[in-house]
Each structure stands twice: as structure tokens, then as C-alpha cells.
Amino acid sequence: MFVSEKKVEVRYADTDQMGVVYHANYVVWMEIGRTQLIRDLGYDYAKLEEMGYVSPVIDLSVQYKKAMRYGQTATVRTWVEHHDKLRTTYGYEILHEDGSVAATGTTVNILVKKDNFRPVPLRKIDPAWDAKYHEIARTK
């Protein structure tokens, strides 16, 4: 299974009044991880947008395990959990520097035409990218 990793420094602005990372920032880090995975595979999400496509999140799940705090460095691990005709499920682990799990999660993304939001299979836009996702998906 192909897993991408991206380090993210926890900034003071990422924390809440309790001094821990505000829960929504984990979702931002998942997006950073997803972008890194795509880049690591040799593809470019920005080019999809230039071609008139976007990839909205249609489902999101996050499980918080152990709080992160200012000054720490998170490692965002991202992989393709499942990929089918229209949906890609990405899996995530956000780790502390000692390897303990801060959060886990998934997002389900689809690809749509930017002007009308109609779903479009990735294989119609970039067959090689689609084939790569099928190859590396954890579940077939």
C-alpha cells in the first residue's frame, strides 16, 4: 500500500483556548495530506482545476485520539482507501512525533465539472491517474 507522509508544524494560531489544536485544523491537515499524496504520485490537482474540474468532499469522518499542542510537529499519513467509478475514499492518520496517533479519518471525494457540478469519472479525464488509484487502493 502506498502511503504519503507530510510534516506539519503546529502553529499557535492552530490552537484553541485550551491550548490544544482546534478540531477543524485536523481537516485542513487532511487536505494537505491529500494534496501531498497526489503530488507524490506525480499528478497535479491544480491542473484538474485548470481543465474545469474540482473534487469536493462529500463525506468526512474524524476520530480524535490524543490532543496535539503548539510547538509539536504532526505527521500526516495519507493513502487511497478505496477508488471506484465516481468516488475516492482517502484514509488518514495524524501522528505525534513519538508515533502515537493524534487522529484518524477518511474523506470521500468525487470529481465534478466546475460549471455544473455533474460527476465525472477520473478515468475519462486522466486514465493513468485512475489506473494508479486502482493499483494502490487498500480495498479493491
Automatic annotation (TrEMBL):
<protein>
    <submittedName>
        <fullName>Acyl-CoA thioesterase</fullName>
    </submittedName>
</protein>
<dbReference type="InterPro" id="IPR006684">
    <property type="entry name" value="YbgC/YbaW"/>
</dbReference>
<dbReference type="Pfam" id="PF13279">
    <property type="entry name" value="4HBT_2"/>
</dbReference>
<comment type="similarity">
    <text>Belongs to the 4-hydroxybenzoyl-CoA thioesterase family.</text>
</comment>
<dbReference type="InterPro" id="IPR029069">
    <property type="entry name" value="HotDog_dom_sf"/>
</dbReference>
<keyword id="KW-0378">Hydrolase</keyword>
<dbReference type="GO" id="GO:0047617">
    <property type="term" value="F:fatty acyl-CoA hydrolase activity"/>
</dbReference>
<dbReference type="InterPro" id="IPR050563">
    <property type="entry name" value="4-hydroxybenzoyl-CoA_TE"/>
</dbReference>
